[in-house]
Automatic annotation (TrEMBL):
Positions of [4Fe-4S] cluster binding: C15, C37, C40, C46
Protein purpose: Acts as a transcriptional regulator. Probably redox-responsive. The apo- but not holo-form probably binds DNA.
Cofactor note: Binds 1 [4Fe-4S] cluster per subunit. Following nitrosylation of the [4Fe-4S] cluster binds 1 [4Fe-8(NO)] cluster per subunit.
Pfam families recorded: Whib (PF02467)
Stored HAMAP family: WhiB (MF_01479)
Entry cofactors: [4Fe-4S] cluster
Organism per entry: Amycolatopsis samaneae
Keyword Iron: yes
Compartments where located: Cytoplasm
Protein name, UniProt field: Transcriptional regulator WhiB
Family to which the UniProt record says this protein belongs: Belongs to the WhiB family.
Length: 99
């Protein structure tokens, strides 16, 4: 993904007009923050940025920092989460189109 598309996804984010402090919370409040991500059109791009950038705090792409750390530990071989998640997204779209 080039630098233009890396930054342009943010304008389509469901949270773009939300209070940023609401996305950088702890405990049960994280469930409310994650709900903002459900149905977001750029959830994949957001999650990829957090994983590739090893962002340690906040809810990104519907995952908490703890969930992201666990995923990173399970998949240490992934060099580019952006590439992996975009490929998975394309594959899912093809399967839906064929069905």
């Amino acid at each position: 993904m080039d630098s233009t598309s890396q930054s342009s996804w943010r304008i389509n984010a469901s949270c773009r007009d939300a209070d940023p402090d609401g996305l950088f919370v702890r405990g049960a409040e994280q469930n409310r923050a994650k709900a903002v991500c459900m149905g977001c059109p750029v959830r994949t791009e957001c999650l990829a940025e957090a994983l590739d950038g090893r962002i340690n705090f906040g809810v990104w792409g519907g995952m908490t920092e703890r969930e992201r750390r666990a995923l990173l530990r399970r998949r240490p071989e992934v060099a580019s989460w952006s590439d992996l998640l975009e490929a998975a997204k394309r594959d899912a779209e093809v399967k839906v189109a064929v069905s």
